[in-house]
Design goal:
The protein has about 280 residues and is mainly β. It has one domain: Jelly Rolls (Sandwich), CATH 2.60.120. About 5% of the residues lie in helices and about 45% in strands. The strands form four sheets. Strands 1, 2, 3, 4, 5, 6, 7, 8 and 9 form a nine-stranded antiparallel sheet that branches. It has a six-stranded antiparallel sheet with strand order 10-11-12-20-15-18, with no helix packed on it. GO terms for molecular function: 5-deoxy-D-glucuronate isomerase activity; glucuronate isomerase activity. Keywords: Isomerase. It comes from Actinomadura rubrisoli.
């Protein structure tokens, strides 16, 4: 078993967290949710998830079919409330993401079917990408946690135009964000983050499978998929707002790019995955 963990305290913020759990065949791991609602999202492999709850509630087990890898299909997932335990066991082994958000309210444990995940094709041309909105406010109920997956074909840019969500105001909400990356063929990709004069930050990072980038504030994007290497990233977001809302503000210097999408052809490589997956996989 191997566990990589980003906690709010370790990140220097308040809400967003992520654990990535790797299990060998037949292994299991029990993890507390503490004060954070938590998802179990298969990255590679299948698993059983048993959610233990206080004595006055009934523990539940969900069988997650999962997927071969993040580039093969949209996956099912499980939701665990705060103040619970999550037991993840895998007969064949695998890798599992546990995005989380500190929260106040306890929602019931639930199963998220892959077939219910809205798949969005965003952008066009070399800015085309696929967004799996499995835990966005419109798709799945949670207290504070917002999460989605983005798949970018090799050579394309996503998270573009650059945008931010670090101020409360019309069309923008404060959200701490984690990017977790995977890249095909042991390849590389690049992530840009930059700030304002008042709140400077300057990141241009080469990323590979298993890498993360933390975005406490500032404009972020593009996420650049190198030619020949498809890019996946998991976005984990949460913030202090009374409303669970995913509201962003484009960098005014580059916002015009969004208007060009309607005149560009769709990328024929999209969508890259679906809930059905390749024929015969399920």
């Amino acid at each position: 078993m191997n566990l990589t963990e980003i906690t709010p305290d370790g990140a220097g913020w308040t809400y967003s967290g992520l654990r990535v759990l790797t299990l060998g065949p037949g292994e299991e791991a029990e993890l507390p949710t503490g004060g954070a609602e938590t998802l179990v999202l298969p990255l590679a492999g299948s698993c059983d998830v048993t959610i233990g709850v206080p004595a006055d509630e009934v523990a539940v087990t969900f069988e997650l079919q999962g997927r071969r890898d993040v580039f093969s299909r949209v996956t099912d997932f499980a939701y665990a409330p705060r103040d619970a335990t999550v037991l993840v066991s895998s007969r064949e082994g695998g890798r599992f993401a546990l995005p989380s958000a500190r929260c106040e309210n306890r929602l019931p444990p639930r199963y998220g079917p892959a077939e219910n995940v809205p798949v969005e094709l965003r952008g066009a041309g070399q800015m085309g990408r696929q967004v799996n909105n499995f835990c966005t406010p419109e798709a799945f109920a949670a207290d504070r946690l917002i999460a989605c997956e983005v798949l970018t074909p090799g050579g394309n840019w996503s998270s573009y135009p650059p945008h931010k969500h670090d101020e409360d105001g019309p069309g923008e909400a404060v959200l701490e964000e984690i990017y977790y990356f995977e890249v095909t063929r042991d390849g590389m990709a690049y992530q840009r983050v930059y700030g304002t004069a008042e709140r400077p930050i300057d990141v241009l990072e080469e990323v590979r499978t298993g890498d993360t980038v933390l975005i406490p504030h500032g404009w972020h994007g593009p996420s650049i998929a190198a030619p020949g290497y498809d890019l996946y990233y998991l976005n984990v977001m949460a913030g202090p707002g009374a409303e669970r809302a995913w509201l962003i503000c484009d960098d005014p210097a580059h916002a015009w790019v969004r208007e060009t999408w309607r005149d560009l052809p769709a990328d024929p490589r999209l969508p890259m995955t679906s809930a059905a997956g390749p024929e015969g996989e399920r």
